[in-house]
Amino acid sequence: MKKAIVIGAGMAGMTAGIRLAEGGWDVTVLERQAGPGGNLRAWTRKGHVIDNCIHWLNGTREGSRLHALWRSLGVLGDGVGLIRQPFFYRSHLPCGTLTMWRDSARAEAELSEKSPGDARAIRRFFRDARAYASGSPLARATVALRWFKTSVGDFADSLSDPDLTTFFSDYLGREYAALGLIVAYSAFIAGDADLPAGGSPGVAERMAERFLSLGGKLVTSVRATGIVTKGGRATAVLTDRGEGYECDRVIAACDPHVTFSRLLPPEYAPAALGRIDRDPRTPHFSSLHAAFSLTSPFPPGAAWTNVIGGDPAALPTRTGGRLILRSFSHEPGFSPEGKTVLQATCFLSGEEADGWFCPEAEYKIKKDAFVLAALDAVKTAFPYSSPAVIDAWTPATYERFTGADRGDYIGWLVPAGLIPPRLPERVRGIANLSIASGWCRMPGGLPTAARSGARAAADVLLSDPLPRRFSGASFPGRKKLKKSQKFDLPS
Ligand SMILES: Cc1cc2nc3c(=O)[nH]c(=O)nc-3n(C[C@H](O)[C@H](O)[C@H](O)COP(=O)(O)OP(=O)(O)OC[C@H]3O[C@@H](n4cnc5c(N)ncnc54)[C@H](O)[C@@H]3O)c2cc1C
Questions:
Q1: Hey, how many other C-beta atoms are within 10 angstroms of the C-beta on 358?
Q2: Is the CB of 489 under 6 A from ligand 1?
Q3: How far is CA 103 from CA 76, 99, 168, 228, 308, in A?
Q4: Are 180 and 443 in contact (CB under 8 A)?
Q5: Which ligand 1 atom sits nearest the alpha carbon of residue 289?
Q6: CB of 53 closer than 6 A to ligand 1?
Q7: Which stretches in the chain have pLDDT values below 70?
Q8: What is the pLDDT of residue 186?
Q9: Interatomic CA distance for residues 198 and 83, integer angstroms
């Protein structure tokens, strides 16, 4: 039986692992954290579950290829409830609230009524979001061409109403490609961006269960430290436990920066990786977070995703003092009776994210200042909710736990006017090593990571086929999981 080692149990690694196990390979996934999921993870604090990842999942609508992929991986399926969010996000502004409703006609009407002078530009935005949501390749190409050179900031500044300017730049930030905003919103319009009940930990658990039930092996709390090569082939993976896992194929499903700086000599790194890293138009992308426990009754205005104002001097400059709030009132199991978790996020890019890799004393001061500013903003927006801080985390936390370069987790920021570059998923000079990662295609995210993992596994299965009797669904070594395994991940 042929052996594959997958490094990293994030979405990309678990997808590759499931596909290879289905194909009859003996697969071991090595993961440095205490459980699977990578960024698709959760942890508990003071009796609350903190869900790190899913704000929305593309591919929840039946009928698409992505939906079929999710079902085949156990991400979605019969018995997995879907929760429909009524809007993409809602901004709290001096004028009141403005909402990017899933119902695009309603959103368009409300925004046009707020600023009749901007009705034409608003119509253009919603017309193109609907066209993109139609799924027609021609419509999508037309929309992409129309918006290719426009940033969120360009579009927001073209509006005469200052509240609308803030509203449109509230979620992704001003430097991001406006097409990215249209694409993200179009998934809501199309009913293709729901939430799997149980959130990120539920998805990670189901995938791990599926992998283990196929006979896959998951080794956690172990860090790969090197890939041994001989004669242009990877022969083994070394770990920090001093073990060597011999194998016929390796799939590196960790951040490619880790692969090409810590697991392999840097000369194997594809030129594209350095090029994208050096390009000032594509800075790295990470974020700051704080989590609060809110007491009952939960303010209805804080449900789902809201963007509120805070002290611009105390919050990162990129956000202009805005803070994205994500509530988990739709997941009652995530908090003790009578409480709800509310998470606050500020996206950071480039130098602002790098600034969190500083001496400990400075780090602590900055983190406390951020938490206080976030707490203040939440208290002001929702005065009767008595928020209490339960956790805070930064790019440095992400780096500590996933090893991802500078704490990034979704690849690079996608600017306007750039055809997103790609990373090769094969390593030149090492015939049996593949790369699977959300970093391989911009803008990253769970679908990108899963597709990358599926491609890497397909490459193995096609280029290195097993004897017929070993391949396919009837593989005899398949084991059944006796009971579901639960993984609680420390932050
Ligand atoms: C706050 C936040 C919100 C997000 N929201 C969404 C969303 O709403 N929708 C969406 O689609 N995406 C979202 N994402 C993005 C999504 O989480 C990522 O794109 C996806 O999880 C990336 O998967 P991956 O497998 O490529 O990488 P990772 O999840 O980073 O997995 C890599 C794995 O490799 C492990 N590893 C690294 N080095 C080693 C080593 N040396 N040895 C062993 N293991 C190693 C890491 O611990 C990690 O588990 C969000 C991410 C974050 C952080």
A1: 13
A2: no
A3: 24, 10, 16, 54, 22
A4: yes
A5: 1
A6: yes
A7: 467-491
A8: 98
A9: 10
The two domains 3-78+200-278+419-470 and 285-407 share their CATH topology (first three levels equal): no
The predicted pLDDT at position 71 comes to 98
The residue assigned the tokens 């809110």 is 294
Q: Which of 331, 327, 359 is nearest to 343 (CA)?
A: 327
What architecture is the 3-78+200-278+419-470 domain classified under in CATH? 3-Layer(bba) Sandwich (3.50)
pLDDT tens sequence across 88-144: 999 999 999 999 999 999 999 999 999 999 999 999 999 999 999 999 999 999 999
Q: Which residue's CA is minimally distant from atom 2 of ligand 1?
A: 53
Spatial CB neighbours of 279, under 8 Å, sequence gap ≥ 6: none
What are the residue ranges spanned by the domains of the chain? 3-78+200-278+419-470, 87-189, 285-407
* CA atoms of 80 and 336, how far apart (whole Å): 23
CA 35 to chain centre: 17
Decide: 59 in ligand 1 pocket, CB within 6 A. no
Closest CA to 123 of 112, 132, 139: 112
CB atoms near residue 99 (< 10 Å): 19
Task: Check pocket membership of 7 for ligand 1, CB cut-off 6 A.
Answer: yes
Q: d(Cα 342, Cα 387) in Å, to the nearest integer? A: 9
Contact 128, 189 (CB under 8 A): no
Contacts of 352 (CB under 8 A, 6+ apart): 316, 317, 318
Q: How far is the CA of 446 from the centre of ligand 1 (A)?
A: 8
Domain 285-407 indexed as CATH 3.30.70:
yes
> Of 53, 185, 223, 237, which is best to mutate to test ligand 1, by the most ligand atoms within 8 angstroms of its C-beta?
53
- In this prediction, residue 468 carries a pLDDT of 54
Tell whether ligand 1 has an atom less than 6 A from the beta carbon of residue 319.
no
pLDDT of residue 472: 41
Please state, in angstroms and rounded to a whole number, the distance separating the CA atoms of residues 89 and 91. 7
Contact 26, 178 (CB under 8 A): no
